[in-house]
Design a protein that fits this description.
48% of the residues lie in helices and 12% in strands. The protein is built from 12 helices and 8 strands. It has a 4-stranded mixed sheet, covered by helices on one side. A 4-stranded antiparallel sheet has the order 2-3-7-6, with no helix packed on it. Helix 5 runs antiparallel to helix 6 (117-128) and helix 10 (326-349) packs antiparallel against helix 11.
């Protein structure tokens, strides 16, 4: 098996350049990803949680996680440009989604930005080594996209913080050891003031997790009840009044660079759909039908636009810039485009010859799942309406209605 390793990746970049490193990453993924785990597999095998944790730990040891994080905390000390190359190659492969994307892509960057030295050394290596899985405790039954309206309370009893409240749509909450929790230290009328971030232990006394069944039959989401849950002072992130700014940064990351590989994964989905259609006598002629050809070409354009968005953000961040409102522009673009594409894929595949060929059955299985999961993509991380409001306010600078 090919292995690039963290040290090998670092050595290769100055000597051979990004192209050789990209090739090494691609070779490692193709050699090590179990074929049955691919989303386009004819005979798929669903990996279990422990298998996925072991796989992601191997990816980290190979240099494919924590790419741009400091070496002092277990990262590989490279740049966002190298992180983008890794993300592109991960996107090319129809591999399982990370079971710790919250930890790697949301909690980790916030810990690096506002965490204490002790917090960084305690939490970051555990995220990368897959010893601790994280979830995100932001949304509430009465405060989904409007985070300023959240009601979960954090009060200090002189020794520890006490958390009381309820979180919902907590992705992976049932398997997580830690939660990036946003709670209110002030009054509800304070809105943006008096909010704080905490690192919550999911096994702490007073935490109850109830899984939520989804439209696709899975139960990835959870509702989390918090009854006088103790949180040590050492697990408070930043100051009590820094929570809103930190939450905004989390959401900017989630909307712009979380799952940075998304454009390249959408490209993989498009290739899979076209290949399945070409393998079917009923579907192959439809690829040349002007109505379908135009819609497929439009999605191809939308993928390229998304690539440019992501690459532009990476370049700006590498130059010391900020994501800002562009996170909403990116999130709105990919979520709306992906829903349209998922509907198109099912429309096409529904016209396949009967009985479907194995390649077509594999595509039908994959795109049914994509279609159902895509229903939530215009809701989580802020609804499309919220994104439009942010774009109008922060990018277009439109005046507010009187």
């Amino acid at each position: 098996m090919t292995a690039i390793g963290a040290a090998a990746a670092e050595d290769a970049l100055p000597a051979a350049g990004p192209a050789a490193w990209r090739r090494a990453i691609r070779d490692w993924l193709e050699a090590n990803l179990p074929p049955a785990w691919r989303a386009d597999a004819i005979a798929p095998a669903e990996p279990g949680l422990e298998e996925l944790k072991a796989w992601e730990a191997r990816m980290y040891r190979a240099g494919l996680a924590g790419v741009a994080w400091p070496k002092a905390y277990g990262g590989h000390g490279l740049t966002l440009r190298e992180h983008l190359i890794v993300s592109q190659e991960i996107g090319r492969m129809p591999m399982p989604e990370s079971v710790n994307s919250i930890g790697k892509e949301l909690a980790g960057p916030i810990l690096l930005a506002i965490g204490t030295e002790e917090q960084k050394k305690r939490f970051i290596p555990a995220i990368l080594e897959m010893r601790e899985i994280w979830c995100q405790g932001f949304s509430e039954p009465e405060a989904g996209s409007d985070l300023a309206g959240l009601r979960t309370r954090a009060t200090h009893d002189g020794k520890v913080w006490r958390i009381n409240g309820r979180k919902i749509w907590t992705s992976g909450g049932f398997r997580a050891q830690r939660c990036l929790l946003l709670a209110r230290t002030g009054t509800l009328e304070d809105r943006h003031r008096g909010l704080a971030l905490f690192v919550l232990r999911m096994d702490a006394p007073g935490v109850t997790v109830q899984r939520i069944r989804q439209i696709d039959g899975e139960a990835e989401f959870a509702e989390v009840f918090l009854d006088d849950v103790p949180v040590e002072e050492a697990d408070a992130l930043g100051s009590p009044d820094e929570g809103w700014q930190a939450a905004v940064r989390v959401l900017e990351i989630e909307r712009a660079t979380n799952r940075m590989y998304r454009a390249w994964r959408l490209e993989n989905e498009l290739r899979h759909l076209v290949a399945a259609c070409r393998a079917d006598p009923n579907l192959a002629p439809l690829l040349a039908d002007p109505a379908y050809a135009q819609r497929l070409a439009q999605f191809r354009i939308e993928i390229e636009v998304l690539k440019r968005y992501v690459e532009g953000v990476v370049e700006d961040l590498a130059a010391g810039g900020a994501i800002g409102g562009r996170g909403s522009l990116i999130k709105l673009h990919w979520s709306e485009a992906h829903q349209r594409f998922a509907a198109l894929a099912l429309e096409l595949l529904g016209q396949a010859a009967l009985p479907p060929a194995p390649e077509v059955r594999a595509a039908q299985r994959r795109f049914r799942r994509i279609y159902l999961r895509a229903r939530a993509e215009t809701i989580y991380a802020g609804t499309s309406q919220i994104q439009l409001g942010i774009i109008a306010d922060r990018i277009l600078r439109l005046p507010r209605a009187a």
